[in-house]
Amino acid sequence: MLLNDEVQLLRKVPYFSRVDPCKLKLMAFASERVCYNPGEDIFRQGDLSDAAFVILRGNADLLVNSGGNEMKAGEAGSNSIIGEMCLLCDAPRAMTVRAVTEVEALRIAKDCFFKVISDNPRISFEISRALAETLRGTTARVESTPVRQPAEAF
Amino acid sequence: MEKNLLRYIWNHTRQQQVWILAIVLLSMVPYFMAFDLPKQIINGPIQGEGFESPDAREAFLHFHYDLPLTGWAISFPGFQLDRMSMLMALSGVFLLLVIINGLFKFYINTYKGRLGERLLRRIRFELVDRVLRFPPATLKQIHAAEISTMVKDEVEPFGGFTGDAFVQPTMLGGQAAAALFFILLQNLWLGLIAAVMVAIQVGIIPKMRRRLIELGRQRQITARHLAGKVGEIVEGIDTIHAYDTSNFERADIAHRLGQIYKIRYDLYRWKFLVKFTNNFLSQLTPFLFYSIGGYFALRGSLDIGQLVAVINAYKDLPGPLKELIDWDQARQDVQVKYEQVLEQFDPPQIVDPKLHALTTTVTEPVSGPLCAVNLSIVEGSGARVVENVSIKIDRGETIAVIDNSGGGAEAFAAAIGRVIWPASGKITLGEVDILELPEAVTGRQISYVSADSYFFHGSLKDNLLYGLKHAPMSTVSYSGKDATARRWEVYEAEMAENCSYDLNADWIDRHTTSVLRGFSDDLKQSVLRALDAVQLTSDIMELALHSHLDPEENPTLAERVVEMRHALREELRKQGLANIVAHFDPHSYNVEATVGENLIFAATGKSPEAEREFIEHDYVFEILRIAKLYDLLYEMGLTIAENLVEIFADLPPDHPFFQQLQNLTAEDIAGYQQFLQKRKQAKGKAQITEEERRSILRLSLFYIEPRYRFGVLTRDIMDKVVAARDLFYTNLPAHLRDSVERYDPHRYMAAATLRENVLFGKLSHRSPDALTKVRTHAARVMHEKGLYESFIALGLSFDIGSGGRRLTLAQRHKLSLARALVRRSDFYILNRPLPGLDRRVQEEIVKAVLDFLREQDNDPTIVWVLSNTSLSRMFHRVIVFDHGRVAEDGTFETLDKESGIFKSLVA
Asked: Which residue of A has its CA nearest to B646?
């Protein structure tokens, strides 16, 4: 897969869809292309957040460890970006991401990611929008969830 | 030491001085004979005196001497020779005398030289010996660089003076007295005039020179301070740069040089003024002879013949006199220098040399506890840091010492380590004051470590084993030339009263290692375990991996490393990790390496910059042409340039992404942009210079496909590059041949580091934790192949630089602790040995060190001054200092229960 192909794939990531391809090429160039075998961890819960990943090919599981048990919290497929939220708020990894199939990803290092964001207002706008949408989704879910009243004691 | 240099010289060279004086007197005989001989030759055979008739003969070697008072006579009739034979015989005698005189001179000069050099050696050794015996308080006030210039430069003139110290004044004094006596014989009154003038000269000149001596003293002190300052600048260079004070230092140096200049200039002026006066005074005497003598001669009261005789006799007086005055000048000069030096080397207190006596045998340990008795310690500033403390430390205890406020704990530990001498009270080991015990006892039975322990220039291993080098443990038996050389060495050392311990002997005392089970590997085990305990092993492994091993010096190890290389490759393959390393294979293209590296395919043993330069060598371009790669790579370079320009063109030059380009800068990109534009405008008809071509080719040469991902590296190019490797080597010019070592999977590459030799490939750009994975497997393979110890040994040969500066501060602290752990002691006094390490590491190390030392069978005492009070729970006993007094002393549990200072410190 060449740099130009990566750029094409990056454009399919919602954050980057409206960004000038030339900038994306720069970002792709400044990032590392990494491969993971099935079963390999891309990052682990609690690790320092040092990079965001864009999955170019393959699937990965998002796992959350609570009380010693790993629970699957979701999946990530090609063209999805992972690890960017923890990067933004400089928090440790909130979940473990494990490759299910062979995964090819673009590893965008922290400095690089921030530099690209600050150079392209478009991206920060897209990120804000994505965040807002997530937040709205969460609020909607909370609102639509019926609040269970404790059974009255007779 | 002796206060007067002349007396010092006399005391140490008395016999030699008398001997050389005798030789000098003896040498006078042929010297004066040679004076008289030319006259004899000219008057005799040449002018024919006594050879009036052709067959006249004269006696050769005829002499007659009457012994006075006895009436006996010694005589020799001589040989009868004719005129020609006489000429030849006398000329022969002349030649013989020339040779004899020359030999005398040669002997006298060498003898004096040797005398001087021996004295110089003696005095230097004595000075350094005194430094070794200085009490700690004195050492704190002196400047290392000043002391070294004193030992090296300031005593230097003493050597030159020694040879002449007594011979010169005796000879010259004799000559001058003889000359004066001769004048007196000729005419009493004129003689008295001469004597008065001499008296004036001898009286005034040295007085005038007093100023010279004072200036000389100032010059010596300022020069010494200059040396100290320069030393300070070198040592404090980091601080100077950190605070931008280099110009302040420049001003300081310039000011000092100005002072020195002024003093030296004054010195010159005085010197020549004195010279002028001296010359004037010595010429005044003849003036008096001419005027007064002449006056009386004209008046007829003085015989003219007498006057001429006096004037003739006088010409022998000024020479010796001047030299005598010069000698006196030199004497005063060295005397002042000597006093100056002595002042620094004569502290009021000095360690008795008996305490430093060499002890080769294992000293009988002084049994009994270590006690502080009414100990008070005063700091350099005069503050009392420990007051009236009495503590008893028994064998086998582990004691944590902590400070609530003040520096009592540290000072207490330092006093046990003899780094500070108590102001009152004492520390005793088995009832004896440790300052009165020989160092062979205290320096072995007690191991003291503090954060500012010093390292000596040398390898890590030398420094680690430094604590075992008390005395030569073996005698080296020399044979042949070496034996002669050694005998000479010992003889000369004794002549100068230096010590003659053999530096080539084995100084490592193998009976005092901490691990002591009677096996031959005790020393090795001690070292390895100590390094483990202080967590230095991985650092040393890292040093080993970055070091260069000489396969000619160590062929077996090199061979085994190559074995390990293959084993690691096999192991990675088995683990399904073959893809994380791209190995160097002579017959295939290494995709993780640059095109240039693939062509040269060699270890260059150089810095990356130098290697880059090598890749751009003319010869490389020549080979590209021959291999028909030149145009292909040029085309490839154009595409790379286009891509790079597209990506980077709009970025400001200081954009951090430019760091992604290892060999390119923003200016380079701009250059490529211009070039591409020019080419486009000319529509392929542009004149492209060789330089432009090369700059494009350079892009191709540094291209790595998995890194850049432009998709420009074709199969065809790769094959051609691999094929060009042989070509590159067959025609390699001789001067380049030595700087490259072609990759061969079955050979050790001397030009590459150990790590490169083990890996023998490039880590994949696409595997994010390739390094960690390779490390894990490599470590296992290394252990399996039994290479661990060899690698550690290689790491231990690392040169730590002056003062250990090539190590980090944390590494130095750990090394200093390890150095104490290697040796067997009854008391380990660890005075905040690990400041600045983080809590977790500190805790681990304290635990490991305690475990390691407790494990040994000598039941050592450990006294640890902790900076991290919470670690005190690992010790049996805790002593808490507060304002220089012992506030609490007890087991951790009892102190923890009481609600005293300790509780508040630990909580």
From this structure: A22
Q: Is B768 on the interface with A (CB under 8 A)?
A: yes
| Structural domain boundaries in chain A | 3-141
In 3-state terms, what secondary structure has residue A41? strand
Q: Specify the domain boundaries for CATH 1.20.1560.10 within chain B.
A: 166-324
Task: Extract the tokens encoding B6.
Answer: 């002349």
Contact between chains at B766 and A35 (C-beta distance less than 8 A): yes
Confidence of residue B362 (pLDDT cuts 50, 70, 90): low
The pLDDT assigned to A150 comes to 45
Contacts of B708 in chain A (CB under 8 A): 3, 29
Question: How many angstroms away from the CA of B767 is the closest CA of chain A?
Answer: 5
Distance CA B565, CA B410 (A): 50
Strand pairing partners for A60? A76, A99
Please judge whether A26 and B767 are an interchain contact, meaning their C-beta atoms are less than 8 angstroms apart. Answer: no
Nearest CB to B709: which of A33, A34, A35? A33
Most confident residue range from B89-93, B463-467, B628-632, B740-744: B463-467
Q: Check: CB of residue B352 under 8 Å from CB of residue B134.
A: no
Query: What are the residues whose beta carbons fall under 8 Å from the beta carbon of B729, sequence distance 6 or more?
Result: B742
Nearest partner of B154 among B347, B6, B327, B334, judged by Cα? B334
Q: Tally Cβ neighbours within 10 Å of residue B694.
A: 16
Structure-model confidence comparison of residues B738 and A42, the more confident one: A42
Q: Which of A22, A107, A115 faces B657 most closely, judged by CB atoms?
A: A115
A→B interface, C-beta within 8 Å: 1-4, 6, 22, 25-26, 28-30, 32-37, 107, 111-112, 115
Please tell me the distance from the alpha carbon of residue B523 to that of residue B511, in angstroms, as a whole number.
9
Contact indicator for B827, B416 with CB cutoff of 8 Å: yes
CATH class of A3-141: mainly beta
Residue B371, token pair as written in the block: 């006690």
Under DSSP, the state recorded for B802 is: G
Mutation pick from A24, A29, A54, A110 vs chain B, by most beta carbons of B within 10 Å, is A29
| pLDDT one-digit tens code per residue, B603-629 | 887 677 777 777 778 888 888 888 888
Binned at pLDDT 50, 70 and 90, residue A153 comes out as very low
CB B17 within 8 A of CB B165: yes
- Could you give the angle at which helices B167-186 and B318-345 cross, rounded to 10 degrees? 150
Yes or no: domain B166-324 corresponds to CATH 1.20.1560.10: yes
How is domain B370-450+825-906 classified at the CATH fold level?
Answer: Rossmann fold (3.40.50)
Q: How far is A31 from chain B (nearest CA, A)?
A: 9
Domain with CATH 3.40.50.300 in chain B: 370-450+825-906
pLDDT in tens, B491-536: 999 998 899 888 888 898 888 888 888 888 889 999 999 999 999 9
What tens digit of pLDDT does each residue of B850-874 get? 999 988 888 899 999 988 888 888 9
| Cβ-count burial B337-373 (b if 16+ within 10 Å, e if not) | bbebbbebbebeeebeeebeeeeeeebeebeebbbbb
Residue with token string 């042989």: B726
Q: Is B54 on the interface with A (CB under 8 A)?
A: no
Size of interface A-B (CB pairs under 8 A): 49
Q: According to the model, what pLDDT value does residue A152 have?
A: 41
Q: Tell me if B767 and A35 make a contact (CB, 8 A cut-off).
A: yes
Residues of A in contact with B709 (CB under 8 A): 1-3, 6, 28-29, 33
Confidence (pLDDT) at A145 = 60
- CB atoms closer than 10 angstroms to residue B326: 15
CB contact under 8 A, B710 and A2: yes
What is the value of ipTM here, to two decimals? 0.81
pLDDT at B741: 86
